[in-house]
Amino acid sequence: MRIVSICPSNTELLDALGLFDQVVGVDDYSDWPAEKVKDLPKLGPDLNINMERLQELQPDLVIASLSVPGMEKNVDRLQELNIPYLVLNPKTIDDIYGDIRTLGAACGVPERAQQLVAELQSKVERIQEKARSIKQAAPKLYWEWWPRPIFTPANANWLTPISDLAGGINLFGDKPGDSYTAEHEEVIERAPDYMFAVWCGVHADKVKTTMITEREGYTAIPAVQNGRVYVLEEGLYCRPSQRLFQGLEELVDLLDPERS
C-alpha cells in the first residue's frame, strides 16, 4: 500500500504498527519518529494540506484525524477528489485502542494491531498499580494547551482519563466537550496542585515556566507556591498515539509523592 498521513498522531501509530515503509507522505507537523519522517514528502500544515501534491503521490489510503480541530475541511476535499481515506476521532483511551484496531485492519495488519493494544493495556495496568499512592492524595492537574486565550482539556478528551490513570484529577474535567476556554480567575480559584504547559505545536524549549508563574494572581496557586509548574513535551500529551502512554508513565513519575 501507499499510505499518506495528514496528522502527527496517525503517523506515529503507523510506525507502531510496523507500516512506515508504506508511508509515502506526511503533513508538516509529523515530526516523529524524526529519523523516518525527515526525508518524506511534506504536504503542508495539517489544516492546509496541498491536495494537488497529495494526489501526485497516488495514495491507496489517506489517514486523517478529527482530533485536530478543523480537519473536516481536508476530509471534505478528499471525498470530493474520490481519494480513499480513513478518519479517526479518538477522545478516550478506549477510543485509541479502537483506532489502532481499525487502522491495523485497514492496512492489513490486524494481528499486530491487537498485539499493540495488548501491550498498551498491560502498561496501563502496571502504571495504575504504581499510581495507587498518588490516587490517595488525588492532586488537581491543570493542563494548558494554549496561553492566550487559555485552552485546556475538558471532559471529552484523553487527558481526563490520563489524569485519572496517573492518580490525579483534570482540573477542568467537569466541563463538557473536548476543550474549555478558561479565565485566569477560574484557574486561580480552582487551585491546582500541579500545572503543566503543553502548548500545541510549540517545542518545550520555547516555553518558560515563568510565562505561567508570573501571571497576575498566580502566586496564590498551590502549584506555583510549591514549585510544581512544569513544561512538558507536548508530543507526549497532545497526540492520541502510543506515545501518550509514554507520557502517562512519565506523569506518574512526576506525581510520585516519594519523588525527591
End-to-end CA span: 49 Å
Task: Describe the global form.
Answer: globular
Poorly predicted sequence stretches spanning 5 or more consecutive residues = none
Count of distinct structural domains = 2
Order of helices and strands: EHEHHEHEHHHEEHEEHEHHEH
Q: Given this structure, which CATH class of the largest domain is correct?
A: Alpha Beta
The overall strand count is: 10
The CATH homology group name of the largest domain: Nitrogenase molybdenum iron protein domain
Enumerate how many helices there are, as a single number. Answer: 12
Helix-strand makeup class: alpha/beta
Biggest sheet architecture: 4 strands, parallel
Radius of gyration: 19 Å
Named CATH topology of the largest domain: Rossmann fold
Could you tell me the strand content as a percent range? 5-15%
Mean pLDDT: 96
Q: How would you describe the overall organization of this protein?
A:
There is one protein chain. The chain has helices at residues 8-16, 34-37, 51-56, 72-80, 93-106, 110-130, 132-137, 159-165, 184-190, 210-213, 222-225, 243-255; strands spanning 3-5, 23-26, 61-65, 85-88, 140-144, 150-153, 169-170, 179-182, 194-197, 229-231. By secondary structure, the chain is α/β, with parallel strands linked by helices. Strands 2-1-3-4 form a 4-stranded parallel sheet, with helices on both faces. Helix 5 packs antiparallel against helix 6 and helix 6 packs parallel to helix 12. The longest helix has 21 residues, at 110-130. It starts with a strand and ends in a 5-residue tail after the last helix.
